[in-house]
Amino acid sequence: MLEELLQKLNQALPKDYSIESPLGKGGQGAVFLGHKDDSQRVALKLFESPDPERLKREILLLQSIRCDWVVKLLDFYTIQLEGRLVPMAVYEYVDGGDLRQAIRDGERFDQGILLQLGEQIGSAIEALWQQRIVHRDIKPENIVRALDGRFVLVDVGFAQHLDLSTITPPHGQPGTFGYRSPEQCGARCRLTVHSDVFSFGVTIFEVATHEHPWGRNQAFIGRKQPVSLRELRPDLDVRFIGLVEQMLRLRPSERPTNPGSRFRQLRGA
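Now predict its structure.
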């Protein structure tokens, strides 16, 4: 059955692309490992979108991002598949494992690696916000540690540009339970960089401790304070702990807007 699906997809693709194997599936659609011109490895994402034109406008905006820590969007197509139009984005393929796998493997990140993660993904968030774009789904699964050692923010399909109507997934509120900011949980339409900073705060806390900052009480995000990072990782610098705690503030205005720069300062110190 998989072979039949891959054959249909390859027949529907532009002639310079081919699909090799599936990489994963989420609420927005499926991602495949493929090739361009039989040489360049790429990731092909097929979206389940009710409005391909709106999706296309926002995806093309993301092509303007120039940051080593944001996955590069290479192209966008609408293909004909089994009698329907399916939007497809072409991303660079980032070879490596995601942070969810690192957590499952029990990998312990020392402060140097955590600061690198904070600086690079924090800078990715800043680069998106310079274009008034909010990622809206930052979590361990969407951060890949590439083979060259850098951390890369991937899956920018939920992204919202404040000057355009938003992409809403077919099953409702964008984002992932446990990583949505309080304002996302409250279904606020016009999110800002503060929302991504909160989601990244949850992520870096979990990577550092292998525990969610709200534990099993994730439904209480926005209504109660998180677990103490200081108690779980007393070996970490108090300035690092203070910055992560600031990212997790319940009020958006109390969170930093420049996490990459803040973590960079800590690395330099």
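The CA atoms of residues 213 and 226 lie 5 Å apart.
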